[in-house]
């Protein structure tokens, strides 16, 4: 079968890959659609995501949907022909965090398409991925499998918004209007945000999120733009920092009210310079958000029942043979939010 494989920074190939054998508790899928995530881009551009370094060939991808084409001997509840979306989490269910119900913080997590462990955990960007049956969430017949591939990033957004503890009518600032920031803005509005504000360095991204959510938007990126934005925004109850930028977090600290709350969603650079004094002097709570828990099932529900319409964020579709062009498009935030791949 064909697979999209990362070998090192800048070295990605769509190549032949042997079919994986099927265990009794697993299913084989016909790949439908997969979304290129920021972590996929990091592996492609830098050969690593934080401390997860590509040391051997690895199939990319953890946001994907498919159709069941084979089931293991012990699998129940899934049949050949069933459309599904895949939860990429494979926690150990044995560590202290799993025992506490915090499986997303599993100390031995095997996340699809991750170089965190050796051997690496292969992802789903192949013609016939094999996953645990328990990772599959059935979808309605004839549901748009491209749209279903957004369940994983929307689950990340829902988890971040849950940690934000948004009170009805609260003022909410979202920094960064990329994929996660845009989905966080959608989730924050649904959670009851009153005044919703989004900042970004790219005007097209801001125009898109304003059209979807009605948010106030402000362009930042230099001292003049940022100063004008801060003057117009004033003070907010909650900030969700989705840009992964130390400058955005500094701005969040300046704009969040005393005893307000900041949720750090985007990954910051390893040696980011930060001005944290405002956290102390205004007793601001800073919380990290990482992946998701039960929010994956909530994301599936809200996307399939039409509670949210995320289709405006699908801005590019490519075949897997066009993977290099797709990754270049995904890196172009002036044009794209979520770029999808199919075979």
Folded structure, characterized:
The chain has 343 residues and is α/β, with parallel strands linked by helices. The protein folds into two domains: 2-150 and 310-342, Alpha-Beta Complex (Quinone Oxidoreductase, Chain A, domain 1); 154-288, 3-Layer(aba) Sandwich (Rossmann fold), CATH 3.40.50.720. It contains eleven helices and 18 strands. It has helices at 38-46, 96-99, 145-148, 151-164, 179-190, 203-213, 223-233, 246-255, 277-281, 295-304, 323-331, and strands at residues 2-8, 11-16, 26-35, 48-49, 52-53, 58-59, 63-71, 83-86, 130-132, 136-138, 172-175, 196-200, 216-219, 236-241, 256-264, 285-288, 314-319, 338-342. Strands 3, 7, 8, 9, 10, 17 and 18 form a seven-stranded mixed beta sheet that branches. Strand 14 (236-241), helix 8 (246-255) and strand 15 form a beta-alpha-beta unit. Helix 4 (151-164) crosses helix 5 and helix 4 (151-164) packs across helix 10 (295-304). The chain is globular. The model has no long low-confidence stretch (mean pLDDT 97).
Write the layout of secondary structure elements.
Elements: E1 2-8, E2 11-16, E3 26-35, H1 38-46, E4 48-49, E5 52-53, E6 58-59, E7 63-71, E8 83-86, H2 96-99, E9 130-132, E10 136-138, H3 145-148, H4 151-164, E11 172-175, H5 179-190, E12 196-200, H6 203-213, E13 216-219, H7 223-233, E14 236-241, H8 246-255, E15 256-264, H9 277-281, E16 285-288, H10 295-304, E17 314-319, H11 323-331, E18 338-342
Helix pairs in contact: 4-5, 4-10, 5-6
